[in-house]
Here is the input.
Amino acid sequence: MGLTEAQLVDVVPDMLSEFAERPWQKDVRCEAKDGVLRLSALNDFDSNGQALLDEFWDTVIAYVHFDDKVSFEVEEVSVQNSLADD
Here is the structure.
């Protein structure tokens, strides 16, 4: 949270391109709206969302120049059991 609309428009393609290089993060989606950049992905190792948050944080810092305060948080984590576990 805390990015300008101009920063949001420019960073979405960069996020998608960067996360396309991370095969452990599947079905990556990124959207920007009202000063918030949201990234979602599926993986089989990050039950609390902290690993994805760390990768997201690093990528935003690398691609966006900002002077104002920004914040990052995990909004939601869904854990699904694999069919192989049944």
Observations:
- The chain has a mean pLDDT of 86.
